[in-house]
Amino acid sequence: MKTFIEKGSEMIQRWKTVFPETVVSLLLFITLKMWFSTKNILLPPFLTLLFITKKKQDFHLLELIRTYIWFFIICLCSYFATTTAVLCLMMNLLVPFFLVFLFTSKFNPKAYFIYGMEFVMLQLVPIQLQELPIRMLAMLYGCTVLTIALYINAIIMRRKRNFNEVRKGLHDISILLNGLCTNDDKKDVQHSLTNVLHQMNQLIYNTRNLSYLTDGYGKVNFLFMIIFQRIQYFTSYFNLVKWTQQDRVYLYKLSEVLKDMCTLLYTDHHLQCVNALQQLKKTYTLYDQAAQEALDEIIDILLYTLKNMETIRLYKHEKTWKIPKTTRKIQNLFSFFKMDVFHTRFALRLSIVLCFGFTFYKVTHLEHAYWFPLSAFFMLMPYAEESKQKIEGRIRGTIVGVCISFILMSYFQSEMAHFIIMIVLTCFMYYVPPTSWLMPMYTTCYAMVFATMSLQLENALMLRILYVAIAAIISWLATYYLLPNTAAMQFKQSVHTLFDIDVEMTKTIRKAYHQEFDKNLLRDLIIHSHLIANEIQVYMSNHMSEEEKQFYSQLLPINRQLVSEIEQLSHYLHKRKPYSHQKHDFMELIFMNFEDIIEEIRYSYTSNELTPVTAVHIDASLLKELDDTVYFHSLAMNCMNTLQHLANLKESYVVKA
User: Which of 23, 118, 183, 603 gets the most CB atoms within 10 Å of its CB?
Assistant: First the structure.
C-alpha cells in the first residue's frame, strides 16, 4: 500500500513538472492548426523542446532573440532544401555540418540538436514559395508564444542566478578550514569540493559564446572557482605545518566568515563579508611566511570578487575575457577539418546520412519516405554507445507504437477522434523520459494519426516499419564504420588533451617573458583542464577495470594539483613580478625545464608503448636560486615534486604491467 501511494505521489509530481511544456505544446498545436496552414503544425516539437531547455534557465530576452534569429535562418535553409534535388543535396550536406561546427563541442555534444531537429522536420512537408511568408509568420507567432510562456514561467518559478554552486563550494571550504584547525580528516569534503569545481567549470563553459569566455555570471563563478582551487591546494599542502594557537584562531574565524557568506552572498548584506575579511586580514597573521603569503592572495581575490559583484552585469558578456584566437571556431575553420576532432567526425557522419536520406526521398518520391531521414536523425548521436541505445529504443518503440496505432485507428476513425488522440498523445509524450523507448512509441502513434489522413492504415504501418528498419541499418553502419566516435577513443584523446593543456599552460607562462601575458588563454586552458578531467572521471566510473580505476584515480588529483600550481605561479609572475629583469632568463630556464619534463611524461602516458620516465630533475644551478621561505619559490619546488609524482605513478604502473 505504501509503495502504491509513493508511486502515485511520484506520478503526480512528474505531471506537475511537465505541465508547463505540455500546455505550451498543446497551445501551439491547436492555435497553429486553427490560424495557420496544417503544414505548419510541425513547429511545436522543436519549439517545445526549446521551452524545456530554457525553462530551467534565467529569462534573458536578448539570448532568446539570438536563438530565434537562428530559427528563421534555418527555416529558410529548410525551404531551399525542398525546392530542387541539387539544393537538397547541398543543404543537407552543409547545414547539419555547420550546425555541429558552430554549436557542438566535446563538453556540450548535443547543442546542435534543437536546430537540427527544426531543419529536418521543416523538410518533411514541403511548401511553395507563396506559402513561405505564412510559415515565417507561423514561426514568429510560435516564438512570441514561447517568449511569453518563458516569461510567465520565470515569474512563477522566481528563478534567478543565485550562485548555488558557489554557495556549495563556500560551505565545503568552511568545513575544510575548520578541519585544518582540528586536524580532522576531511577527504569526503575534498571529494565534494572537487565535484563542485567540475560543475562550476561546466557552468562557466556554458556561459560563453563564439567570441567571449564568459558573461558576468560566468566571470564571478570563474573567480570563485580559482579561490576554491587555491584553498583546496592550501589545505592539502599546509596540512602538516605545525599551527600555532593564533593560526588556528585565524583559520577558524575565516571559516566562520565563509560560512556566513553562504547565506549573505549576492544579497543586500554581502558587503558585511568584505568588512569581516578586511578586518581579519588586518588583525591576524600566520606563523609560516609561505602560508601567510598564499592566504593573503586568496583573500585578495575573494575581496576583489565580492566587490565586483556589486557592479557586474550578470547577463552581459565580459568584453575583456575574449576567447583566444587559437581556439576561435570561425578564425580556425580549417583546423576543424582534422579527422581526429570529435565534432568533425560527428558533423560529417550526420551530414552524409541526412544528405543521403533526403536525396533518396526527393529523387524517389516514395510515399512518406521522409520517415527514413527523420528516424536516422534521432538515432544518430555523437557517441557510438548512445547511438546504439537510440537505435534499439527506436526499433522497440516503433514496434509497440505500430501495434497501439493499429488498435486505436481501427476503432477511432473520425477526424475529431484523431484530433483527441493527438492531444492525449501530446500529454503523455512529455510525461515519459526523453531517453526512454516510450518516446518513439508515442511519436510513432502521433505519426500514424497524420499518415492515415492520406493512406490506408495497413499501408502506413508497413511503411513506418520499413523506413525505420532502413534508417536503423544505415545509422548502425554510419555509427560504426563512418568516422566512428566511441567512448574508448574519446578517453584516449582526453588523456592526450589533459597533458597537452599542461604543456600549453607552461608555454604560456614562459612566453610571457617576451610578450604580453595572455590571461584569457590561461583561463581557457584551466576551464578545459577541469572539463577534460571530469570526462575521464565519468569514463572511469563506467568502463574501466579496478586496476585502471586505481591508476587514474591517482593521476587526476596529481594533475589537478599541477594545474593549481601553474595557475598560482602565473599569477605571481604577472602581478607581483618577484624577479628583476636580470633574472628573467633564470626563470625562463626553470619553465623550459618544466615544459620538457611534462612533454616527456605526456609521451610516456600517451604512447602505445609502456615507456618509463627518466628521473624528474631541475639543473643544480637553478635549484640554488630557489628559497623555501618565499611562497613563490615553494610553488616552483612543489611543481617539480608534482611532476615527480606523475612520473613515479607511471613508473609503478609500468612495473606492474
Answer: 118
| Residue among 282, 210, 1, 41 nearest 142 (CA) | 41
What is this structure's pTM?
0.86
Q: Say if CB 137 and CB 36 are below 8 A apart.
A: yes
Residues in the chain: 657
Cα separations (Å) of 11 from 4, 7, 14, 440?
Answer: 11, 6, 5, 20
Q: Of the ranges 7-21, 24-38, 385-399, 578-592, which one carries the lowest mean pLDDT score?
A: 578-592
Distance CA 13, CA 26 (A): 20
Neighbours of 621 (CB within 10 A): 9
- Which amino acid type is present at position 363? V
Nine-digit cell string for 160: 534567478
DSSP string for residues in 356-379: HHHHHHHHH--TTTTHHHHHHHHH
Closest CA to 92 of 286, 370, 310, 453: 370
173 and 228 in contact (C-beta within 8 Å)?
Answer: yes
The better pLDDT of the pair 465, 420 is held by 465
d(CA 52, CA 72): 20
pLDDT at 544: 80
| pLDDT score of 580 more than 50 | no
Determine the Cα–Cα distance for residues 306 and 488; give it in Å rounded to an integer. Answer: 42
- CB neighbours of residue 268 within 10 Å: 7
Cβ count within 10 A of residue 106: 18
Please provide the average confidence, as pLDDT, over all residues in the chain: 83
* Backbone torsions φ then ψ of 100, nearest 5 degrees: -65, -40
Query: Would you state the pLDDT for residue 543?
Result: 79
The 3-class SS string of 396-459 reads HHHHHHHHHHHHHHHHCCCHHHHHHHHHHHHHHHCCCCCCCCHHHHHHHHHHHHHHCCCCCHHH
Q: pLDDT band for position 158 (50/70/90)?
A: low
What's the pLDDT at 592? 77
Distances (CA, A) of 23 to 9, 44, 596: 21, 11, 60
Task: Decide: 208 and 329 in contact? Cβ < 8 Å.
Answer: no
Which long-range contacts link 600-609 to residues 24+ away (Cβ below 8 Å)? 601/499, 601/643, 601/646, 601/647, 601/650, 602/496, 602/499, 602/500, 602/502, 602/503, 604/647, 604/650, 605/495, 605/499, 605/650, 606/492, 606/495, 606/496, 606/499
Cell 604543456 sits at which residue? 503
**Cβ–Cβ < 8 Å for 217, 166:** no
Provide the residue type at 369 as one letter.
A
Three cell numbers written together for 551: 591508476
pLDDT per position as a tens digit, 513-559: 666 778 888 999 999 999 999 988 888 887 788 878 888 888 888 88
Q: Decide if 235 contacts 180 (C-beta within 8 A).
A: yes
Question: What is the average pLDDT across 609-629?
Answer: 52
Supply 96's cell numbers.
547539419
Question: Residue 85 has what pLDDT?
Answer: 86
